[in-house]
Write a structure and sequence with these properties.
The complex is a heterodimer of chains A (about 260) and B (about 300). With about 260 residues, chain A is α/β, with parallel strands linked by helices. Helix content of chain A is about 35%, strand content about 25%. Chain A has a six-stranded mixed sheet with strand order 6-7-8-3-9-10, with helices on both faces. In chain A, strands 2-1-4-5 form a four-stranded antiparallel sheet, with helices on one face. Chain B is mainly α and about 300 residues long. Chain B has one domain (about 5-120, about 155-280). Classes of the chains: A alpha/beta (about 260), B mainly alpha (about 300).
Chain lengths: ~260, ~300
């Protein structure tokens, strides 16, 4: 049994004072692809943002390759409204440490940098790779993966379509030479044609062996990609389904919402 | 008014515009990147001018002027870098960060002004201009140094624009300005980039301060006027593009010098403020702006 790549132990978090997810434990092995499925507004994105270090975790631990990424202990409640409390309260996780470790998060519906061109964005993206090798090769790979981006090379992100923006976001994530890539709803709000194109790209990324955590609302897309499906409901993991008995869309709806759906 | 006088006023307006462009760009860059308004900008101009004066006192000649400029710009860059961590970073997670930054930068302006007063005294000083010759320009006799100043100011702005567009560090700066969260997820050290921005802004302020100090007299409180003019320029021009405040700076400079000739010196601020109010009423995003602030 190899050591897990990413391990969450009893992780809780949210937007203070609102708790969004509680006591989430999960482990992802090297080379494993995990799908996260659940209704909107139940905390999947908040969970990923917490792992990525954008939000402070409230309790529990995030371990990447055995190394702890967040501060030990529970987050203290705000004690004073008069002092500049933020001056004394340290962040409990640093997004830079997470990126350093190679845990890369691709935001959903990402606006990215609206006034920069595709070329400029992809030029600065490898700074997250922190001298991990293979950036030059990844650049070539991205050209094959997203031929559409080459046509839009000098356009500003602002003028790109939603799908093209998503492609840039994923390309940025890949150029960071991730050791684990978290994709948050890569097919959100895309036309069927673009959705197919993007699914194809994600499939190709999967072939390269980069471990993935994918959140998506499209069950067929998700089940065809992942080794393990995790159902996320009301801020916690309710069920894990291995690849052997991947459910159909209708079955999954039954599982989550009961037969009435 | 003869053609000669017209040329003379126009040229002095353009020179003023160049200086305002330098100051206002620094202010606009901080506004678009850090999202706060730096009220210490005028104090940066003052401190930069005094530092250059100090150096030019000990090193004589045209070469001394260059050393003075270089020292002042470098020191002010470092000071701006450090001040980000003292003035703005402690409040960045507070929802009232804009208001708190107003107070903290105003405090810094006051401290810097009084430190200058304590150190250099209240008497007017002038940095000796390295070039004192005049040249004939379309009938008007204009200082050669004015052209040099205008050239350096525009060159500095061009260099800054090139730095932001072409270099990797400049591009990461713009990235941090446009989407902080995405920049952090990209592994960029956002506080450091913000500090560099404030440093660059302080450096341009110092450069402008040296030029003002060699054209006019400086005293510990003269920074208030450049700050006010930069504010007018930024509001008038908007911050949609890097060049927006630069165009507006030349408009303000030329309007100021013509109104000083026709209406009198005391009326030109009133006219500028009237223009600013008119722009705010009719086109709030600025003459050369559209509805977004970017770098």
């Amino acid at each position: 049994m190899t050591e897990p790549l990413l391990e969450l132990r009893g992780l809780s978090g949210g937007y203070p004072p609102v708790s969004v997810f509680r006591d989430v434990s999960l482990s992802v092995k090297q080379g494993e692809h995990v799908g996260l499925f659940g209704p909107n507004g139940h905390g999947k994105t908040t969970l990923l943002k917490t792992i990525a270090g954008v939000l402070d975790p409230w309790d529990g631990g995030i371990y990447f390759e055995g190394k702890r990424l967040n501060a030990v202990g529970k987050m203290q409640a705000r004690v004073s409204h008069n002092l500049n409390y933020d001056l004394f309260r340290k962040r409990r996780i640093n997004a830079l440490d997470v990126v350093d470790a190679g845990l890369i998060y691709v935001m959903q519906g990402n606006l990215l940098f609206p006034e920069m061109t595709v070329e400029e964005v992809l030029d600065i993206a490898p700074r997250a790779a922190r001298n991990r090798p293979g950036v030059a090769q990844m650049r070539r790979q991205i050209h094959d993966l997203f031929p559409r981006l080459r046509e839009r090379w000098t356009s500003k992100i602002r003028y790109l379509s939603g799908g093209e923006r998503q492609m840039v976001s994923i390309a940025v994530g890949l150029l960071a030479m991730p050791r684990l890539l978290m994709l948050d709803e890569p097919t959100l709000g895309l036309s069927p044609k673009l959705r197919i194109e993007l699914s194809e790209a994600v499939r190709n990324i999967r072939e390269t062996g980069v471990p993935l955590i994918i959140v998506d609302q499209n069950v067929e897309f998700l089940t065809s990609l992942v080794d393990r499906l995790i159902l996320f409901d009301h801020g916690t993991i309710t069920r894990e389904i291995p690849a052997e008995n991947m459910p159909k869309h209708a079955e999954l709806m039954d599982m989550m919402f009961g037969g009435a759906h | 008014m003869g053609f000669e006088a017209f040329t003379f006023i126009l040229m002095s307006g353009i020179l003023l515009g160049g200086l305002y462009a330098l100051m206002a760009t620094g202010l606009a860059v901080v506004w678009t990147t850090l999202g706060v308004f730096n009220f210490a900008h005028g104090a940066f101009v003052t401190l930069g001018a005094y530092m250059a004066w100090q150096v030019s006192q000990s090193v004589a000649g045209g070469f001394g002027f260059l050393i003075a400029v270089a020292t002042s710009v470098t020191v002010m860059f470092c000071l701006g870098f450090v001040l980000h961590f003292a003035l703005i970073k402690p409040f960045e997670r507070n929802q009232n960060v804009v208001l708190l930054a107003v107070v903290s930068t105003l405090a810094a302006a006051s401290i810097i002004e009084n430190a200058v007063l304590l150190n250099w005294g209240p008497r007017d000083k002038q940095i000796a201009p390295p070039i004192t010759s005049k040249i004939d320009f379309f009938g008007a006799s204009i200082n050669t140094f004015d052209f040099v100043i205008l050239g350096i100011a525009l060159f500095a702005l061009f260099g800054l624009a090139l730095f932001l567009r072409r270099t990797t560090v400049g591009r990461t700066l713009r990235a941090a300005a446009q989407n902080r969260e995405a920049a952090e997820l990209m592994g960029l050290n956002v506080p450091k980039l913000f500090a560099i921005t404030l440093g660059l802004s302080a450096a341009t302020a110092a450069l402008a301060g040296v030029f003002v100090g060699s054209l006019r007299f400086i005293n510990p409180t003269f920074g208030a006027d450049p700050l006010m003019k930069s504010l007018i320029v930024v509001i008038l021009g908007g911050v949609a593009r890097f060049t927006s405040p630069i165009y507006a700076a030349f408009v303000v400079g030329i309007v100021e010098s013509f109104s000083a000739y026709f209406l009198g010196l005391y009326w030109s601020p009133a006219l500028l403020f009237a223009m600013m109010i008119a722009v705010l009423l009719i086109k709030p995003e600025g003459l050369f702006g559209h509805r977004s602030k970017t770098l």
